[in-house]
Amino acid sequence: MLADLGWNDDLARAFEALAKQGYVPARLNRETTINYGAFIVDEDGEITDIDVVLSGKVWHDAETDAELPAVGDWAAVELGGENEDHVIRARLPRRSCFSRKLPGKSVEEQVIGANVDVVAVVTDPGADHNPRRMERYFALIGRSGARPVVLINKADAFPPGHCEDACAEIQALNPEAEVHLVSALEGSGLGILKRHLTRGNTMCIVGSSGVGKSTLVNQLMGEEWQWTSEVNQVTGKGRHTTTARELVLLPAGGMLIDNPGMREIQMWTDERTLRENFADLERIASRCQFHDCKHGTDKGCAIRAAVEDGELEIERLESFLRLDDEIEQLRRRAKKRQINIERRAKRAHRIKARNLQDRIDHEREQRGEWR
Length: 371
Hints:
Oligomer: single chain
CATH class of the largest domain: Alpha Beta
CATH superfamily of the largest domain: P-loop containing nucleotide triphosphate hydrolases
Low-confidence stretches: 227-242
Mean pLDDT: 80
Number of strands: 13
CATH topology of the largest domain: Rossmann fold
Strand content: 15-25%
């Protein structure tokens, strides 16, 4: 039954020492402000949902919030007795991690889903269609280690040619991604989803509010799992219908991490991943006359020539430059934050050492050693 939750040989090897301490493996399926929910396999061999709390040691050992257990993580849990808490004693290594930068001016990473096999981005051919935002998704998925799948929902609400154009535009951004037209209301295209939701596999489903994520989840569950709201006919947007991140075990096999609608897709990636997702620009840039070309007014710039000749869309170039700038800013803020942390740690160490010396001097004075 553990295999149904995504358990594998690598996890089993990582858990060997923890098993000797009497802990049980658990997969976290939800997170609240005070505790977690988790799936375990009980003594009868059945998958059971329990509430668990985080041990102080795990909390203190985490250098950042992203290192704390998150939905999709595997953990070692110490089962409590009657009227006792079940406690997370350790988080097992992640084989993949889909995350973004925490919204706002923070430099912290926010984990959206851990140990994910597929990230499915739900959009539509209408108001939500945004190739520039999709480039951000592809960059984040590329760093995560998961496979990208794009579901263009509401295919029933737009002319076929319009839908196919939207599909082709997104596919051109990432030839390795799977891009599919679906209709959650009509149930078409769900077979494509189910192909990825095989036993032990986990899919993280993301997208803007109102694009039909909850309707898709309802179709997969075969019941009204999430309440769905009406979509504004003018803006094409809907209210959030998923209010908390949750890992759902599907009746037909596989697992789904459903997420609230995302308003901000801020970069949490590295330069290498970004350049892999813009390989077409890299190929063009290799033709620049000078290797340190800034792709502006530099002589012999192949990028600028490609834009002028229509080989490269100016919007794609501007998107790359914005993302590259975001990553650089994130790197600078993170470095500044690390310097401040180290500075505070050194100051605290000096204060502690000075206080210790003052206490020693006071005790020596009390004993009359200085008289």
